[in-house]
């Protein structure tokens, strides 16, 4: 419950509580494949491999689907805003076709799995639509419709939608889907166990030695040996190929509320206008649907994070004005990583790797992307290469060179924090300046400390140096968390890790 606003958190997690956590391994473990991360990419890979007869263990730092997957809007679509015109220019028509084919195959795969296993995950077929209200963006939408059609999708340019406000135009693709991601993944984890696989929650992997077998160290003191290792932690916790230079974290807000069924849109929508607005509805009660609206993205921990509450308010105001009768019930935030060339990085972990794989950089489209990654990595483990393996191969360089501007922009942002965070602050207010519920990075006893004052006026401090690569964290007041602007690690007020790539908590400090 978000007590400050009287709203609940993620609807998906609230309506699919996990019961008792699956315990960490009781002792050192040897398996054929270890999958790090129990989100959609990790569990899809694990289930696919188990289905093919491999011995698999999933190691999840928190709970299954409690991370990015449990905070998504849960659209399963191959229409990713304006990707196809971009791909046509950067990866050619063939690249765009492979992208459309692979993402469409993932949606069909999820439909098959849900049907075959009888998973009750509120599966609904729906069309996906990228729309614009401004007439100035219509040419861009027409180009996207043409590129998506060329890539093989049933895309058309439309001017009418089932939104309750007018649009200047949209790209509409039929035959897409939406579902309840946590119910789907919990059922998949159950099936994985029935096929002999194991799932260990509360087991954070902190070290990897690549050898034969690979050796994983964990924060519960257990060592896991595995012939193959899959790193599916959203932002890779092990990064031998320096993928962090090609990934930018992006945090996005979600508000949700109830609408009379006859007022709720049934198609799924997104617009790049107004700092993104993404809309879908989900089954709720007999006569109401839950409307989910996502948008207001920002870099976690970057200047402006202090305005997260204002961003929530802006998003809620937009939802209320566009959907009269909406009663807000939930709000939460989600975080994903954009790759510099807008294509996920799925495949071998680094150029020299033989037994380690990674899946990351889904750019907010992690459901179709994660399910696609499950199939792709399972094929690679078995020595096969689907025709789209090259498109997603993290070792690709050509497109990174083409995406030089985006690459350099991200590096400049990170470099600013690496250098700037090591300089003494110009002004250094003391902790007495902090109001209850507030937090700031302050110099205390010669150390940069992340200091928070709780509602009872007591001060709490942890080191402000992110344990990933040492940037300074910043305070997110709305979510009461410390966030790193460099690669998006997030920490609780007591220093616990909320989201990687950091694998160690922030150290406690005295104030
Ligand atoms: Fe990389 Fe903090 S997440 S330095």
Would you mind describing this structure in some detail?
- The structure is a single chain.
- This protein has a domain at 431-509: 3-layer Sandwich (Rieske Iron-sulfur Protein).
- The strands form 4 sheets. Strands 3, 4, 5, 6, 11, 12, 13, 14 and 15 form a 9-stranded mixed beta sheet that branches.
- The mean pLDDT is 91.
- It has 11 helices and 25 strands.
- With 511 residues, the chain is an alpha+beta fold.
- Strand 8 and strand 9 form a beta hairpin.
- Helix content is 26%, strand content 30%.
- The two termini are 30 Å apart.
- It has helices at residues 11-14, 40-51, 83-90, 92-116, 138-150, 181-194, 308-322, 366-381, 389-392, 398-402, 404-420; strands at 29-36, 56-59, 75-76, 124-132, 155-158, 169-178, 198-200, 205-209, 214-218, 223-234, 247-260, 268-271, 277-283, 288-298, 327-339, 345-348, 356-360, 439-444, 447-453, 459-463, 474-476, 481-483, 490-491, 497-499, 508-509.
- Helix 2 packs parallel to helix 6 (181-194) and helix 3 (83-90) packs across helix 5.
């Amino acid at each position: 419950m978000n007590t400050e606003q009287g709203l609940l958190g993620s609807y998906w997690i609230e309506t699919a509580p996990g019961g008792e956590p699956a315990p960490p391994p009781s002792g050192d473990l040897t398996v054929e494949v270890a999958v790090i991360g129990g989100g959609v990419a990790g569990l899809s890979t694990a289930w696919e491999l188990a289905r093919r007869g491999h011995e698999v263990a999933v190691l999840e730092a928190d709970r299954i689907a409690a991370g990015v997957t449990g905070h998504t809007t849960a659209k399963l679509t191959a229409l990713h805003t304006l990707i196809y015109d971009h791909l046509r220019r950067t990866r050619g028509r063939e690249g765009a076709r492979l992208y459309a084919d692979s993402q469409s195959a993932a949606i069909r795969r999820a439909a098959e799995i849900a049907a075959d296993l009888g998973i009750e995950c509120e599966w609904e077929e729906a069309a996906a639509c990228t729309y614009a209200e401004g007439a100035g963006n219509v040419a861009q939408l027409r180009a996207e419709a043409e590129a998506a059609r060329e890539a093989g999708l049933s895309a058309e340019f439309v001017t009418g939608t089932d939104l309750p406000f007018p649009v200047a135009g949209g790209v509409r693709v039929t035959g897409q889907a939406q579902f309840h991601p946590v119910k789907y993944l919990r059922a998949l984890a159950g099936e994985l166990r029935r096929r002999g696989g194991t799932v260990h929650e509360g087991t954070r992997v902190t070290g990897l030695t690549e050898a034969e077998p690979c050796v994983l160290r964990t924060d519960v003191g257990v060592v896991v040996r595995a012939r193959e290792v899959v790193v599916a932690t959203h932002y890779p916790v092990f990064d031998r190929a320096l993928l962090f230079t090609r990934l930018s974290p992006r945090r996005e807000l979600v508000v949700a509320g109830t609408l009379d069924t006859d007022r709720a849109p049934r198609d799924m929508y997104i617009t790049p206008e107004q700092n993104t607005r993404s809309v879908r509805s989900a089954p709720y009660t007999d006569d109401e649907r839950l409307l989910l609206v996502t948008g207001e993205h920002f870099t976690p921990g970057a200047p402006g994070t202090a305005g997260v509450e204002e961003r929530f308010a802006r998003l809620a105001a937009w939802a209320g004005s566009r959907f009269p009768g909406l009663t807000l019930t939930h709000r939460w935030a989600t975080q994903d990583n954009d790759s510099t060339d807008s294509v996920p990085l799925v495949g071998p972990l680094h150029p020299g790797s033989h037994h380690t794989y990674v899946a990351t950089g889904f750019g907010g489209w992690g459901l179709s992307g994660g399910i696609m990654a499950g199939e792709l990595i399972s094929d690679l483990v078995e020595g096969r290469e689907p025709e789209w393996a090259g498109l997603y191969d993290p070792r690709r360089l050509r497109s990174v060179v083409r995406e030089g501007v985006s690459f350099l922009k991200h590096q400049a942002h990170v470099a600013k924090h690496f250098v700037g965070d090591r300089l003494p602050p110009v002004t250094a207010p003391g902790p007495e300046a902090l109001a209850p519920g507030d937090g700031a990075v302050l110099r205390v006893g010669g150390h940069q400390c992340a200091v928070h004052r709780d509602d009872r006026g007591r001060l709490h401090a942890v080191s402000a140096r992110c344990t990933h690569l040492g940037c300074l964290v910043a305070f997110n007041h709305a979510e009461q968390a410390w966030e790193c602007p460099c690669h998006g690690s997030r920490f609780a007020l007591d220093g616990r890790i909320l989201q990687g790539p950091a694998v160690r908590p922030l150290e406690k400090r005295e104030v």
